[in-house]
Design brief:
This protein has two domains: 82 residues, 2-Layer Sandwich (Phosphorylase Kinase, domain 1), CATH 3.30.200; 205 residues, Transferase(Phosphotransferase) domain 1 (Transferase(Phosphotransferase), domain 1). It contains twelve helices and eleven strands. The protein is α+β, with helices and mostly antiparallel strands.
Amino acid sequence: MFKYQEDLRIQIYENVHEEIKLAKNNFDERIYHQDGYELYKGVHKGRPIIVKEYRGLSDEEHVAINEIMYASGMSVHRNALKFLGCCLEVNCPFLVFETAQNKTVANRICDRDYAQFQPMPWKERLKIAVEIAHAVVYLHTAFQRPIVHRHIKPSNVLFDERDKAKLCDFSLCVSIPEGESHVEEILAGTLGFVAPESIKTGFFSEKTDVYSLGTFLLVLLTAQKQFNLSRAQNGGEDLLGPYVKSQIENNRFEEIVDPCIVAEGTWLGKEQQLKAVISLAILCVNDSEEERPTMIEVAKNSEMFIELRMGLVSL
C-alpha cells in the first residue's frame, strides 16, 4: 500500500505500479514534461497529488533516489514542493508529490501565444523571487553540508492552489563535501542558467545557484527566455544575462522591462525599484563567482525591494 509522509521526516514509502497508475488516472492528465521526466495530476484516496515519472534516462533509479533524498529534506520548507512517497519497483520510477496548479512560472511569464494569457503583476513576480530565494537559502544552510540545487529556472517553479511558489526538481542536487567550497560533478542543468565556471571546470558551489537565480530574476523582469538565438542574429547576445548587461550599458533600461510591467502604470519609486532589481540580478550573473552575493544577501535584498514597493524604505 502507498503511504504518505505524515510527519515529513526522511522516510521512503514504496507503492505498487498499478496503484500509482490508478492514482494518476492511467496517465491521462499530463501537466508538464521535459527531457527525462513527466508530471501528471492524479487523486489517491481523495487526496490530489502529482506523480513524477522518469523516462528515457540511462540512470533513472539513481536520479530518482537522488531526488528522493533531497526532496524529502526540503519538504519542511513552505516554498518547496512536498515529497509524499515513491515507487521504485518498476522500470520507470515514480515519485509522488503534493498537488499543484498546471502552470509553471515559465508558463505564466513567457508563454503568451494562447488566448487565456493573463499578465502576472510585478508585485507577484517580486513575491515569487523572495519565496524561491528563501527556499534556496534553506538548501544552502539548513543541512549538515550545503546543498547546491543546480536546476533553478522558471519551469521548475510551480504554484500551489493558493498561488504560493513551490521550487521543485531536486534531481540534480549535490552536497558540498565537508571542508570544501566546491564539489566536482558531471555538468548538468539548462543553458543560460548554469554558471560559466561550472561549464568550464565541472565544479559547483552555492554561487552556482546564485547565478541561476540571477537569470531567474531577469526572466521575471523581462519576460524573455534565458537563451534566444534571434537576439544574437540581431546583433545582440543569445544569453539573457549578457544581453541585459549590454542594454544597461547602452542606457536602454526601458527596452528590457516587460511591456506588461510598463502597462501597470506608475507608482512611487517604480523606476527606482525596477533598476534595483536589475542591479541585483546583474550582480548575481557576474562571470566571477567571487563577485556574486550570497543567497542570503539575495533574499534580504529581495525582501527590501518589496518594502520599497510598499513605500516602507528608500534606497
